[in-house]
Amino acid sequence: MLSAQIILPCAAPCPTMALPVHMLLRHSLMMCLLLHSLVLMSFCLHHAATSCSRNCYCTESDGGGKTVRCSNLQLTEIPQDIPNDTRRVYLDFNHITAVPANAFAGLPHLVELDLSHNELSQLEPKAFRGLGSSLQFLDLSSNKLVKFNPEAFEGLRARANLTNNPWHCDCSLQMALPHVDLEPASLAGYSLPDFGS
Ligand SMILES: *[C@@H]1O[C@H](CO)[C@@H](O)[C@H](O)[C@H]1NC(C)=O
Ligand SMILES: *[C@@H]1O[C@H](CO)[C@@H](O)[C@H](O)[C@H]1NC(C)=O
């Protein structure tokens, strides 16, 4: 029978304690298995309860709003599995090149959308359709947007950051801007003519 000798540091001669190691081993193995399955179980439960877009990092705020962080993930496309109760999406610092039509149509509660620091060169018509009145802030700064396509912004009423794009400030941009329902602050920093209101 295996046994471990634990010598206690005593001044006086003290008795040695013999602990049956096989008991300890069996006990800790059981504990280990139990812990392992508990951890796995809670991970699975957690995942099911708070679904998140693959590879992204999700947090739930007290108000019930979900925040999905997919920043800096080398993404080339907008993920299609963003949970429908999401309030904020951070897709900044990726390599996304386009926003297709209805890309965010399944997200009726979205308040903030950050697409800054990507490689967006075009926004297809109806790109932001479905976001409607919930969206308050749209960040499209630091992309490669050249042509302003008012059809992309159809139905949107949000504060948008459009800075740091190689905009072609031609007539079409000037003609288009007054028809787009964006807040005036969107154009802060632009040396565009004042269209009046
Ligand atoms: C999200 O989608 C599920 C399943 O389609 C639906 O039951 C739920 O009501 C939706 N939630 C929101 C907040 O729209
Ligand atoms: C707009 O985007 C620029 C460039 O990314 C950033 O420096 C600036 O702080 C942003 N403005 C707002 C109001 O978020």
Explained architecture:
Residues 1-18 form the signal peptide. It comes from Takifugu bimaculatus. Pfam families: LRR_8, LRRNT. One of its GO terms (cellular component) is plasma membrane. Residues 51-88 form the LRRNT domain. This protein is α/β, with parallel strands linked by helices and 197 residues long. It has a domain at 52-184: Ribonuclease Inhibitor (Leucine-rich repeat, LRR (right-handed beta-alpha superhelix)). 18% of the residues lie in helices and 16% in strands. It contains 2 helices and 10 strands; from the N terminus they run E-E-H-E-E-E-E-E-E-E-E-H. The chain has helices at residues 21-49, 171-176; strands at residues 4-6, 17-19, 57-60, 66-69, 86-90, 98-99, 112-114, 122-123, 137-139, 159-161. The strands form 3 sheets. It has a 6-stranded mixed sheet, with no helix packed on it. A hairpin with a 5-residue loop joins strand 3 (57-60) and strand 4. The longest helix has 29 residues, at 21-49. The radius of gyration is 28 Å and the shape is elongated. It starts with a strand and ends in a 21-residue tail after the last helix. Residues 116, 141-142, 161, 163-164 line the site of one 2-acetamido-2-deoxy-beta-D-glucopyranose.
